[in-house]
Structures are given as C-alpha cells and as structure tokens.
UniProtKB/TrEMBL annotation:
Keyword flag Signal: no
Residues making up the signal peptide according to the UniProt record: none
Gene3D superfamilies: Vaccinia Virus protein VP39 (3.40.50.150)
Pfam families: Methyltransf_25 (PF13649)
GO molecular function: methyltransferase activity
Keyword Transferase: yes
Name of the protein this chain belongs to: Class I SAM-dependent methyltransferase
UniProt keyword annotations, A-Z: Methyltransferase, Transferase
Organism: Rhizobium bangladeshense
A Gene Ontology BP annotation from the UniProt entry: methylation
Residues annotated as domain Methyltransferase: 47-132
Length: 205
C-alpha cells in the first residue's frame, strides 16, 4: 500500500459517517457466528486485521473476550471505534499500520479479515500479507476471512478489488492453511444495495 492509499482511507473515515459506508454492518453476524462455532475460550487472542470502525470488538468485549487487537492503516477509523468503546477501548490493542508492511510481534489464535485482503491486487502485496499472516499465527490458529465473491462488486470505496471463490482463496493461502468451512453472504449496504461476499475459515496446519 502506498501513502496515497493510506490517505485515501484516512479521508474516508474523516469524511463519512461510520454507519454510512457500504461495508457497514449493524452487527457483525457472520463473524460472530463463525466464532461461536469454534467454541473458543474468551482468553483466545484475536486480531481484526483492517478492522476499521467495525463493532466486532465491541461485541467480543461484551462477551468477555480479554485479548483483542484491531489493526488498520487508517488512524481515524480506529479513533471512531475507540470513541464508541469509551473506557473499554483501553482493553484493546490498537495498531495503526499497513498489514503488508507489518511484522507481528506475537501470535494470535484468530486472525479475522473482513473486506481487506481483496484490496491487495498485486501479487507482491498478497505475498507480504501472507508473510504477516504466517508470523502472526501458529499451528492451530484460525483465519476467518471475507472478500467480495466472484460475482461481487469490482470496486469498493473507489478502489479496485480482487474477487475470490473459496478455491481461489485457498490457493492464495497455500498448503499451510486448510479450508474448514466456506459460505457466501449477501451483504445489504446501508444504501440498500447487495454485495456478494465469500467467507472462508482456514486452520493453520
Ligand atoms: C472495506 S473496509 C472494512 C472494514 C472492517 N473490516 C469492516 O468489516 O467493517 C476496509 C478496511 O481496511 C483498511 N485497510 C485497507 N488497506 C489496508 C492495509 N493495507 N493495511 C491495513 N488496513 C487496511 C481500511 O482502512 C478499512 O478500514
């Protein structure tokens, strides 16, 4: 990602209400459902990569999760989430960085990415993401990832995206990750549009 892309995302979160962007979800239902099915202890370490202003961590704090991190290239996105969480914001690690330039200093039990990987349209960006993923996870870690599906939009937030089905995502992640579950979701945007998402749960071997 270039500084220009960071500026793009900063501008998005500075100028648009968090509940007006196309990716807004009142409740992150698919993510919570995927986590429920894993029956993890609330002490499990979870990172929401490109979490933006998502309320996933709010819902997990409410459920007692105690080891949460949110990473995003755009500081203003995290500021929205922190303001919303008020005192609970101090219970979360906030990381302002480009995931493709990040070297995780620890490993997470769950790596969650909704609508971030699909912005990496260059092979070297995806390779850099995978390096971060491999450093930030351990054998047994789960990866919950959602991208636009093959019949989803070609752009998001004015940027081109790479669309995937489960097989294509599995090929990107390589043999170190086994595909456990996949499903499609029709996301309803705040403007009333429909967007096809492909969700996958991988397990690190
Ligand atoms: C479509 S939004 C999705 C936000 C959130 N995951 C959700 O579901 O509400 C994409 C997010 O990825 C972030 N992002 C884009 N490229 C990134 C990168 N290279 N590293 C980290 N975050 C990035 C953006 O700032 C934005 O918050």
């Amino acid at each position: 990602m270039t500084a220009t892309q960071q500026e793009h995302w900063d501008e998005v979160y500075r100028t648009k209400a968090a509940d007006s962007v196309s990716w807004y979800q009142p409740t992150p239902e698919p993510s919570l459902r995927a986590l429920d099915e894993m029956h993890l202890p609330v002490t499990a370490a979870l990172i929401d990569v490109g979490g933006g202003a998502s309320s996933l961590v709010d819902r997990l704090v409410e459920r007692g999760w105690s080891d949460l991190a949110v990473l995003d290239i755009a500081a203003p996105a995290l500021d929205v989430a922190k303001a919303r969480l008020r005192g609970d914001a101090t219970r979360i690690a906030w990381l302002v960085t480009d995931v493709t330039k990040w070297r995780p200093g620890r490993r997470y039990d769950v790596w969650h990415d909704r609508a971030v990987f699909h912005f990496l349209t260059e092979p070297e960006q995806r390779l850099a993401y995978r390096r971060a993923l491999e450093t930030g996870t351990a054998p047994g870690s789960a990866v919950i990832i959602a991208t636009f599906a093959t019949d989803g939009p070609e752009r998001c937030s004015g940027l081109p995206v790479q669309r995937y089905d489960a097989a294509a995502l599995a090929a990107e992640f390589g043999s170190a990750f086994s595909l456990e579950r996949e499903w499609r979701e029709e996301h309803m945007t705040p403007g009333g549009g429909r967007q096809s998402f492909q969700w996958c749960v991988f397990r690190r071997r």
